[in-house]
Specification:
It is a single chain. This protein is mainly alpha-helical. The protein has a domain at 4-80 and 121-131: Winged helix-like DNA-binding domain superfamily/Winged helix DNA-binding domain (Arc Repressor Mutant, subunit A, Orthogonal Bundle). Helix content is 46%, strand content 6%. It is built from 6 helices and 2 strands, in the order H-H-H-E-E-H-H-H. The protein has helices at 4-17, 25-32, 36-48, 73-80, 100-118, 121-125, and strands spanning 52-55, 61-64. A hairpin with a 5-residue loop joins strand 1 (52-55) and strand 2 (61-64). The protein is elongated and about 60 Å long.
Length: 145
Amino acid sequence: MISQTTEYALRAVVYLADQDDPQTNAQIAEVTEVPVGYLAKVMQILSRARIVTAQRGLRGGFTLAHEPDKLTVLEIVNTVDPVRRFHECPLGLHGINLCPLHRSLDDAAKAVEETFGDTTIADLIRVPRHRKPLCRFPAVSEPAT
C-alpha cells in the first residue's frame, strides 16, 4: 500500500516526534532499523519539504518542524510517494468515466487518503510506551500486571 521509502519516512518522523533533542541520522537509523545511507536520502526529502529541520554542529541533528498534532500521516505520505488516485481511465479508454475496476481502486485510495489525513503523528505516539508504533521502538520494560 505504501512504498518502503514512505515507511522509512514515517518511522523517522514518529521517532522524532517522541524525542526532545535533535537526533542524528545514525541515531534515527539505529532505532528505526533503516539503513543509514537510505535514511540520509529520506531525511533530505523531509528536510526539503520542511517537515524536519536539520541543525548542524555538536548538538545537531534533526527535529520536527511542526508539532506532532499538526502533522498528518497523509502529509508525510504525499511528500514521499503520494497516494495514487484515478481521475480518468489510466488506459485512456474511458476518459473520466472510470470502469468498475478503476472506480473501486480510486474509492480505496480515497479511503486511505481520508484515514491518513485524519491521523496525526501525535495520534501515533499517544499510546502506552510498550505499544509505540515502531518495531522495537525503544521502550522501558514495564512490569507485568
